[in-house]
Specification:
It is a single chain. The protein is mainly α and 532 residues long. The chain has 23 helices and three strands. The protein has helices spanning 12-15, 34-64, 71-89, 92-101, 108-126, 129-152, 155-175, 182-190, 196-218, 221-232, 238-251, 287-306, 322-336, 340-353, 355-358, 363-370, 387-403, 411-422, 449-468, 472-477, 482-491, 501-509, 516-531; strands at residues 259-263, 269-272, 275-280. A three-stranded mixed sheet has the order 1-3-2, sandwiched between helices. A hairpin with a 2-residue loop joins β2 and β3. α7 packs across α8. It is globular. The structure holds zinc ion.
C-alpha cells in the first residue's frame, strides 16, 4: 500500500524537481517585477511537473505492464529521464529568479510557492549529475534484484544492493548538508520538516498504549471468532469484485474521467490532477483485502484529484508529504469504510453480487470479519490495529542502521527479534521478514514512518470532522459521502504544500499531532467487539 513506487525515475523529489531546458541563457533583468518573476518561475515549475509525471508513468507501467525482459531497458529509460530532469532543475535561471523574488513582501501563497521552489532547486544543485544517474540505475536494478531475492528467500543476494543503497543515502544526505543526520534527511524527503527524534517520541507514546491493547484484543475469544468468520469468505468471483469496488470508489468520490484502476502485485497510486493511476490486486478467497486495498488507494487518489489543478506542480498544487497522503488513504479505508454506517449502505448490494457466498453470513458476522484483528508477519496483510506495530519495527531498524548501531549482516536477526517482541510472531523465512517490503530496494528509507503518522492524523482529523458533523455515519448509511469529501478538500487537499504535516494537523484540529486520538478511535471501534 504505497503511494508511489517503482524505479528511480519515480522518486518523489526527482518528480517534483524544477525543470526548464532552455531558459538558462536568458539574461538577468534588474527591472523585472516580482509578479513577472513568479510567473516565469511558475512556468518552469509546471514544465518540471509535466516531465515528472512522465517519470511516474514509466514507474506505473513498470509495475503494471512491463515484461520481465524489459527491466534493464526500463532502468536506462529512468536514468535518461532523471538526467534530463536533473540538468534542467539545476538551471541557473531558476536560481536567478529565486534571488530576484527574495523572501520579503510575499503573501502567504507566494511564500509557500517560493519555499517549495527553493527547496527543490537546492536539492537539484547540490546533487552532482553523476550521483543522480548512479542512484537512478541502482534504484531500478535494486527493485528487480529484490523481487528475485524475495522469491528465492535469499537475503544474502540482496544484502550488497541494500548496502549500496545505504551508502547512496548517506552520500545524498551529505551532499544536501545533512551529513550528521542522514536519517533525518531521508525523513525530510518524504515529510518536509519532520525528524526522527519527533517521530520516535510519538511512536514511543503510541507503543505504550497500543501493545497492551493489541494483547487484550488478540487474547479475547471474539478474536478467534472474527478470524474464523473472515476465513469463511471464499470463492468470490473476481469479475463481481471488480464491479463492486468500482461502484464503491466512484460513490465515495473518485472521478473515473480523471483516473483509472488496474492490477499490480502491490497496490499503489501514482499520478496527479487529471491522470491518477490506482492499482489493486484480486484474491477470490480474500475479497475484503481487495476491497479495502482499493478504498485505501482511492483515498490517495481523491487527494491528488483534489489538489488545485491550476497550480499543479507548484508549492500550491503538490501534496503536503507522505504522512498527509497516508492520512487521506487511511481515513477512507478505516474510519469510513469499516464503519457500520458505510456497510448499512453497501451491504445489500454486496450480498446481491455474491448471493451464494454470503447466504450463511449474518450482518453482525460480516461486521466482525471487516474488523477482524489477527497478528500477521506481513505488513500489507495486517489489520489496522496491529499495522502500526509493523511500522514501529521498521522505523526502529532504519534508525539503528543509519546510526551505525546495526550491521547489515545482523538485520534479518534483528527483524526476527523485534517482530517477536512487538507482534508476537517470528518469521521462519526472510521472505516473510526482512525481504517482504519493496521500499528498501530502491533506497526509499524514511518512508515507513509516514504510514503510522498518517494513521494518527486520520484519527485526529476524523474526530474533528465528527465534532463538526455528528451525523456523518447516518449520512454514510444513506450513501452520502459529499460532506466529508468537501471538508477534506477544503481543509487538506486545496492547501497543497502550504503547511507540513504537523502544521496542517494543528491548523485543522486546533492541537498538535498526538497518538491519543488513534488509541481512542481503536478503543471505540474494537472495544465493543472484543473487550465486551
Ligand atoms: Zn498508502
Amino acid at each position: 500500500m504505497t503511494r508511489t513506487i517503482g524505479g528511480p525515475g519515480a522518486s518523489y523529489a526527482c518528480l517534483r524537481a524544477l525543470r526548464d531546458g532552455h531558459a538558462g541563457s536568458k539574461r538577468f533583468n534588474p527591472w523585472m517585477s516580482i509578479d513577472s518573476a513568479l510567473e516565469e518561475l511558475t512556468t518552469l515549475e509546471k514544465h518540471a511537473h509535466l516531465l515528472g509525471t512522465v517519470g511516474e508513468l514509466l514507474g506505473w507501467d513498470e509495475q503494471v505492464n512491463l515484461a520481465a525482459g524489459g527491466a534493464e531497458q526500463r532502468a536506462s529509460q529512468h536514468a535518461a529521464l532523471a538526467a534530463v530532469i536533473q540538468a534542467a532543475a539545476s538551471n541557473p535561471r531558476i536560481g536567478a529568479l529565486l534571488e530576484e523574488i527574495g523572501t520579503s513582501g510575499l503573501d502567504a501563497d507566494q511564500e509557500a510557492q517560493v519555499r517549495h521552489a527553493r527547496r527543490e532547486f537546492e536539492r537539484a544543485t547540490k546533487l552532482p549529475a553523476e550521483f543522480v544517474r548512479e542512484k537512478a540505475i541502482q534504484g531500478s536494478r535494486g527493485y528487480h534484484a529484490w523481487a528475485r531475492a524475495k522469491s528465492a528467500d535469499d537475503f544474502a543476494s540482496f544484502a550488497p544492493i541494500l548496502e549500496k543503497n545505504l551508502e547512496l543515502a548517506r552520500a545524498e544526505a551529505a551532499y544536501l548538508g545533512w551529513g550528521n543526520s542522514p536519517y533525518d534527511a531521508m525523513i525530510d524527503k518524504h515529510d518536509p520538516g519532520l525528524t526522527a527524534a519527533e517521530i520516535e517520541r510519538l511512536f514511543t507514546e503510541l507503543k505504550r498504549d497500543l501493545v497492551p491493547l493489541v494483547r487484550a484484543i488478540t487474547g479475547s475469544p471474539a478474536a478467534r471468532r472474527a478470524q474464523a468468520v473472515a476465513a469463511r469468505l471464499k470463492g468470490f468471483p473476481i469479475r463481481a469484485q471488480q464491479v463492486f469496488l468500482r461502484e464503491v470508489t466512484a460513490k465515495i468520490g473518485f472521478d473515473y474521467t480523471r483516473g483509472r484502476i488496474d492490477v499490480s502485485l502491490h497496490p499503489f497510486c501514482s499520478g496527479t490532477g487529471s491522470d491518477v493511476r490506482m492499482t489493486t490486486r484480486y484474491r477470490e478467497d480474500q475479497p475484503l483485502d481487495s476491497l479495502f486495498s482499493s478504498i485505501h488507494e482511492t483515498g490517495h487518489g481523491l487527494y491528488e484529484q483534489g489538489l488545485p489543478i491550476a497550480q499543479l506542480g507548484t508549492g500550491l498544487g503538490v501534496n503536503a508529504g507522505m504522512a498527509v497522503h497516508e492520512s487521506q488513504s487511511r481515513l477512507w479505508e478505516n474510519q469510513v469504510a469499516r464503519s457500520r454506517g458505510f456497510w448499512r449502505h453497501f451491504e445489500p448490494r454486496w450480498r446481491k453480487l455474491f448471493p451464494a457466498q454470503t447466504e450463511n453470513l449474518s450482518p453482525e458476522e460480516l461486521y466482525l470479519a471487516i474488523n477482524a484483528v489477527e497478528p500477521t508477519l506481513i505488513r500489507v496483510d495486517a489489520d489496522e490495529v496491529t499495522y502500526n506495530l509493523h511500522i514501529i519495527l521498521r522505523f526502529e531498524l532504519e534508525r539503528r542502521l543509519f546510526a551505525g548501531e546495526l550491521a547489515l549482516k545482523d538485520l534479518p536477526g534483528a527483524w526476527r527479534a523485534l517482530s517477536r517482541e512487538l507482534i508476537g510472531l517470528e518469521p521462519a523465512t526472510d521472505r516473510e521478514g526482512v525481504l517482504q517490503d519493496i521500499h528498501w530496494s530502491d533506497g526509499s528509507f524514511g518512508y515507513f514512518p509516514s504510514y503510522c503518522l498518517g494513521n494518527m492524523m486520520a484519527a485526529q482529523l476524523w474526530f474533528k470532522a465528527l465534532a463538526l458533523r455528528p451525523q456523518l455515519e447516518e449520512e454514510f448509511a444513506r450513501g452520502e459521502f459529499g460532506w466529508l469529501l468537501g471538508w477534506l478538500r477544503e481543509q487538506v487537499h486545496t492547501q497543497g504544500r502550504k503547511f507540513n504535516a504537523f502544521e496542517l494537523v494543528r491548523r485543522v484540529t486546533g492541537e498538535a499531532l498526538s497518538p491519543r486520538h488513534l488509541i481512542r478511535y481503536l478503543k471505540e471501534r474494537y472495544g465493543p467487539l472484543y473487550l465486551g
